[in-house]
Amino acid sequence: MNTPNPGIDPLSGLRAPQDPACDVFLTGTVFLDIIFTGLDSAPVRGTESWARGMGSSPGGVANMATALARLGLRTSLAAAFGDDHYGEYCWDALEQGEGIDLSLSRTVPGWHSPVTVSMAYEGERTMVSHGHEAPAPAGPPVPGRSLPHHPPRARAAVASLVPGRSEPWVARAARDGAMVFADVGWDETGRWDLDALPDLGHCLAFLPNAEEAMRYTRTKCPRAAAHALAERVPLAVVTLGAEGAYAVDGTTGAAAEVPAIEVEAMDPTGAGDVFVAGFVTGTLAGWPLADRLAFAGLTAALSVQEFGGSLSAPGWAEIAGWWQQVRTCADQDPAALERYAFLEELLPATSRAWPLRRAVPTIGFRQ
Question: How many other CB atoms are found less than 10 A from the CB of residue 242?
Fold first, then answer.
């Protein structure tokens, strides 16, 4: 796996001695992802399909944690890990390979790791998952170490909202000064009621996709949906797929839209997580709204060109490699490149050729 690069810190000019040690906190379920790529079509019942590519990596909430850590943010993850080889591999990959703080995580004796098999074809994916909810930890809560009630002090936190459910740690994180960024999944109840997302009131930013945003706001246009959501949260960001993203600052009324970068997608697994990680990074760094959208879209575009969720998350070396390469292409539109000119003073020098391989996609070779 990749090794952390402590020399690239997007918040280096903003840090002060009294700041929390943690930049971003998140919690959730870690899966062991097994990804098949190079399928010509979806598997057909009663037949055997052969994939031209395969990889394994930590998945689930690990996708977001890895994306944040690779962008230089000090990331803390609270999760349960299975007491099996899969769990051991995921723990080592995240802690040793990515430099993620797992001091609030735990290994659960006798509990096996959740597993997801993802099959990517024609730019889409089909997934099959299996797992059981981790049992609650035994013993009384320990202040500062027991979740979901006691998250660490952090600049930001990332939450996944679920209709009808409130997570106590979200309110606590917001009261402690964290900027809370939230996404949401498909509403299986079919109600699509914003009032059924009680933790939304604690959030700085809400980042649904276009379909989710329109359903929650009863609108027929994702841009109109973003404006409607900005009446509920300070910052509404709606991802538009191949069209890019649109955001509205509810405090000022300002809006920004950035088109997507056209790429040949190998596997979209984790692209939404990478987008959120890029947007969180730009927000903590204090960038203008349009720059944040552009950076988030760029990191997501780079991620879909490789397979896997956490495996494909780009770091600063990959972003620098892309910027160096794209400026030498004769067919690039200078006006389009100008949108990313803000990267020039941020990026490290790189001598590595594009494209850059990010990680070894396997559970682990013996040394």
Answer: 11
